[in-house]
Description:
The chain is α/β, with parallel strands linked by helices. The chain is built from twelve helices and ten strands. The strands form two sheets. It has an eight-stranded mixed β-sheet with strand order 4-5-6-1-7-8-10-9, sandwiched between helices. Iron/sulfur cluster binds at residues 244, 281, 283-284, 287, 289-291, 294, 299, 312-314.
Amino acid sequence: KHFPIRQSFFKTLLTGQKKFVHAVNNISFNIEEGQTLGLVGESGSGKTTTGRLVLRLIEPTNGSIIYRGTDITALEKEPLRKLRKEIQIIFQDPLAALNPYMKIGDAIRHPLDIHGIGSREERHDMVLDMLSRVNLEPASDFFKRYPRELSGGQRQRVVIARALITRPKFIVADEAVAMLDVSVRSQLLDLMLKLKEEFDLTYLFITHDLATTKYICDRIAVMYLGTIVETGSFEEIYKNPSHPYTKALISAVPEPDPETKKEKMIPAGEVPNAVDLPSGCFFHPRCPYVMDKCKVEEPPEIKLSKTRMVKCHLFGR
Length: 317
Ligand code: SF4
């Protein structure tokens, strides 16, 4: 039922000499079955690494990933392969995710072939059904097309269809609508919501765009430099953010009404280098509320309520 993950210290190699990057550091979160958790943060905050860790596409150096009561962290190759039927990922760039020489129908059917699901005829029917469910109709026509013959939005529908063809329960959507025009984006979000109901899905929705979470997320976890700085329900976070970084993200969301005035909290300066993390609170070089303590002491996780956590020295004093 829950997906806790505790992960510390992920390494990467830089040119010349080996250095370690704290891509994700000591994070822990749960996703309730049937819910959507939005993982939000700037580029380089560790969101994508977290998504890949949850799916074991990257191996964690420490910690555990629990999927429906089972620790999958040390799962061997074969059981992990079987589990991949249930947990899938939708990538940001549909063009890169699809083989340009493979027809759409064959691409969507491929996971069924890999997992040996259904007879030849059944697989064919399942693909046609899935094409209809993602509104690519007439399905028999789209079946025979190539990715280059489709628009960006249509290609992303194909990627979604391929991810859902094995009837997974858990989907990591990694910036799944980021490359699309605003109008197409809202159509895709509507589609993801519809499919969530139809297939009883649970989503980990990774995005740099807090505004997008409004349409789809029940809960939000805000990441900064590899650590989660605030979690809460969508309403709690959006209407009453606690962490200065969350406030800054919200202040950057454009308001449809130009008369609406928002406190501007765009943090000054660049995101610090993850190879050489700041001392104390990682956000202190950009924080308008910085105190002496923030520069030397890492803030603890403070529980503000049953559903709310913030990592900041301004709280729990
Ligand atoms: Fe700002 Fe200090 Fe809170 Fe970090 S701990 S966010 S520097 S007030």
